[in-house]
Amino acid sequence: MPKIHPTAIIEDGAKLADDVEIGAYAYIGSEVELGAGTIIAHHATVDGFTKMGKNNQVFPYAFIGGKTNDLKYKGGKTGLVIGDNNVFREYTTAHLATADNTFTTIGNNNLFIAYSHVAHDCVVGNFVIMSAHTALGGHVRVDDHAVIGWNAGLHQFSRVGEYSMLGGCSKGSKDIPPFMMSDGFPAVPCSINKLNMQRNNFSEEEINLAFYAFKTIYKRGLSRKHAIAALEEHPQAQTSRVLKSIIAFAKEPSQRGF
Asked: How many domains does the chain have?
């Protein structure tokens, strides 16, 4: 049976796996589903139409599944889907989506450090790190292994590519392609995220290809169209996972630009 502190409030209808732990004064809403091994600490809240997978940890005073703060909300059933092995530290928040039958989505193995915020309709991948006091505006997409530095914020509808980084205290108003590092207020691309690539066992050749892409996109004075064409002309454009990822990201529709 779930291990539930007697002061916790579990609303009728909530679905808890057998080994879930719920701490003192925690609140679990009626439409919540918690997967095996999940731990909800004291004074934490999981509410709304929220489905959480296995082995997640929600620390004290976090609020997961809050109603969207988008003024376009007109009612209907909106939700939040969370995968496995995520950590939501103290005072973190993650909101439901806005339109009927839509979801804010969070993948697996992510770390949300204290006071970080995932707004309505965001899509967060896997192995993402959001440092303390970071915030995603609505409809932001953050791909796998990206890092958001302390006190940084991302504008609505912006995209963050895999293995990239937004530096601390930065204002992210443009898309950040995969493997790139952006910093400043407003943030501008400054280099590649070499350390992240090294930590994830990318080869020196792959790191050099990422740097080649950085120079092609940001240092040659090319338009986006011509920068993509230049990358596609590289001999390894069809074989390198680095160049393929950057080219695919650049070709996707963007509401914010690079």
From this structure: 2
